[in-house]
Amino acid sequence: MAFFDLAVLTNENGLLESAQVGVLVLTTLVFWYRLFGLFSVKNLHLLAFGLFISNISFVGAGRELSFGATLGAGPDLVVTIQTVMATIWASLTLCALGLFITRVSPKLTAIKHYLTHPTSQNIYVAILLFGVSSAFEQGGLNLPKSMFMEELIEVGAFAILMRAAWVLR
């Protein structure tokens, strides 16, 4: 008898997916906390970058969360929640784009700064982990298909996104 039932851990809205959503929501809040600090000191360059990057965790939470199953919501409420989240995402993206266009230098050195920023470096690691998790999901790279490993690695990737939010300064 197994100590843990893998089906309970890996089911849609199971323990691992719920942990992923929790980490993503917390990551979004950490990003917004850091963005408030950047706004307070009027660092508009990094604020524009952070607004855009913070959308990753916000959209990720929406993607991972199956609203109807989690909230016991009907189709109308699910559409309403998705519409509100899409509106928030679009607003953040447009604000970030506007700030970036009006405040960030178009010089290559300025863009290089954002590509090599510690937040970006953590996001690169998270993307790599997402690739590995996808390999477990699809059975690619000669790895066995494993929903458990896929979900576990995704939790790790989302934790790296939280680190990306934490180092945004």
Question: Summed up, what is this model?
Answer:
This protein has 169 residues and is mainly alpha-helical. The protein has helices at residues 6-10, 15-40, 44-64, 67-71, 75-103, 108-115, 118-138, 147-166.
Measured between the Cα atoms of the first and last residue, the distance is 48 Å
Helix count from the secondary structure assignment: 8
What count of structural domains?
1
* Fraction of residues in H or I helices: over 70%
Strand proportion, as a percent range, falls in under 5%
Q: Which word captures the global form?
A: globular
Strand count, sense and barrel status of the largest sheet are: none
Question: On the 0-100 scale, what is the average pLDDT?
Answer: 79
Strand count: 0
Any low-confidence stretches, pLDDT <50, length ≥5? Answer: none
Run of helices and strands = HHHHHHHH
Structural class by SSE content: mainly alpha
Radius of gyration: 18 Å
General description of the model:
The protein is mostly helical. It has one domain. 80% of the residues lie in helices and 0% in strands. It contains 8 helices and no strands. The longest helix is centred in the middle third of the chain and has 29 residues, at 75-103. The radius of gyration is 18 Å and the shape is globular.
